[in-house]
Amino acid sequence: MKKTLKVLIPILIAAVLLAWIYRDFDFSSFGQSLSSMDWGWMAASLVAGAMSYVIRGIRWRLLLEPMGVRATDALCINSVNVAYMMNIVIPRIGEVSRCAILRRYDGVPFPKSLGTIVTERVIDLVCIALITLLALSLAHGEIDDFVATTGLNVGQYADMLHSSRFYIVIGAVACGCLLLFTLLRRYAFWRKMRAAFADMWRGAMSIAHVRRPVSFVIYTILIWVCYYLHFYLTFYSFGFTSGLGWLAGLVMFVVGSFAVVVPTPNGAGPWHYVIIVAMMMYGVRRDEAALFALVVHSLQTSLVVLMGVASLFLLQNKHAAD
């Protein structure tokens, strides 16, 4: 039941949100838009998306090397592709599947590879923070309008930092963790947990020993450039978005990146909502913005599934050959 709920609840949340967002939408226009849009630009967008997954897999191998792991580029890329597909089924489970695949096919200890993924996530947070700051500096007014339109009250989170209750809760949680640590260290299984955490820490710190740091930085930049192009190039597939410009694409890319944090399949629902709101700010009609969000999200999700299935097939063939 617990496993079933992990799958069904995110799908249910996405279904409710999409039903509300598209309650007045004419779905007959969906098929017509597929035949009339510029597929050349959409293909270029999908290629950029596929390249981001490939580059992420190659960069992951650089993080694994300092621990003595000699995984191939193909294995790392296929693991990343499967992880993205698994995240559609159960949000956030993809990170676990990456480690499981690496352990199965290359014998890499699970905690070590998981530590490298923790490092990746930290780097992703830094990158999205820098991109957000860039968007704020270049389009501060547009983002303020978006926050006002969606009803987000950013100020309440800043006010929370000045509340004594916030620090009381933080202190209570810290004391609880310290007490739990004191109790657990008396038991034998704590040694196994400590060893696993040590492996995870070594994996997380592998970035300090990357043999090709320049390549690592270049790969990181390319990943996020590809992510942006994966979204922005789709503007040229539709007449009503082709003139929006790269800055509008940057604003929507940022708000869309935060929307996919919500645990629904590939951000379905929240992503559609923020993209529609942002496009309407730039003068796109609501029905056209809804059409854009539906078509783009459907095709990009299909790409994730296609690459994941292909990678599973390649991994199965490798296992059979071995």
UniProtKB/TrEMBL annotation:
Subcellular location(s) per record: Cell membrane
Main subcellular location of this protein, as a coarse class: membrane
Matching InterPro entries: L-PG_synthase/AglD
TM regions (residue ranges): 39-58, 122-140, 166-184, 216-238, 244-262, 291-315
Keyword Membrane among record annotations: yes
One Pfam family, short name: LPG_synthase_TM
Record's keyword annotation contains Transmembrane helix: yes
Keyword terms: Cell membrane, Membrane, Transmembrane, Transmembrane helix
Gene Ontology CC annotation, any one: plasma membrane
Record's bilayer topology term: Multi-pass membrane protein
Origin: domain of life: Bacteria
PANTHER family: UPF0104 MEMBRANE PROTEIN MJ1595
Name this polypeptide is given: Flippase-like domain-containing protein
Lineage, highest ranks first: Bacteria, Pseudomonadati, Bacteroidota, Bacteroidia, Bacteroidales
